[in-house]
Design goal:
Blueprint lengths: L10 H9 L6 E7 L2 E6 L2 H11 L9 E9 L2 E9 L16 E9 L4 H14 L9 E2 L4 H7 L1
Parallel strand pairs: 3-6
Antiparallel strand pairs: 1-2, 2-5, 3-4, 4-5
Helix pairs in contact: 3-4
């Protein structure tokens, strides 16, 4: 007996299914010309960034953003933050709060406009994130301009 298995070859169909997924980790898929960008984050990451990177009381974690590596045709842009409610045990060499992984973006191009896709996606989901107090970058000019 032969099974009738349908394979989906259309990227639009696959992206539609991803968008309808209940976990909502893949938040945005943008195509602009031949440049594709995919934004990934979950609600807990945004809640933590709001709690630790948007504070006015001085106890604020800067949000670190960096293009970490190339994955096939995509660059992987990662964001990280310190979880200020946790700390390493006494005697640990860093003496700081642990770093947590934040939102990520896969993109074909590293421009101010593509970096803005990541930040705008976060702020559209949680408008308070437009008030992040400090960013740390590796000196990438386009990334630094997108953070402003």
């Amino acid at each position: 007996m032969q099974e009738n298995i349908k394979t989906k070859t259309s990227s639009d169909t696959v992206l539609h299914e991803i968008a309808e997924s209940p976990d909502k980790f893949i938040r945005k898929y943008v195509v602009c010309g031949n440049v594709k960008s995919i934004v990934l984050f979950d609600d807990q990451q945004l809640a933590d960034i709001e709690r630790f990177c948007c504070r006015d009381d001085g106890a604020c974690s800067p949000k670190n953003v960096d293009t970490t590596f190339k994955f096939g045709n995509f660059y992987v842009v990662t964001a990280a933050y310190r979880h200020l409610l946790l700390s390493y045990p006494t005697g640990h060499s860093s003496g700081k709060s642990p770093v947590f992984m934040g939102p990520m973006m896969l993109t074909h191009k590293l421009t101010q406009e593509t970096y803005r896709i990541l930040f705008d996606s976060m702020a559209q989901t949680n408008p308070i994130l437009a008030n992040i107090k400090a960013f740390v970058t590796d000196g990438d000019v386009a990334l630094a301009q997108a953070c402003q």
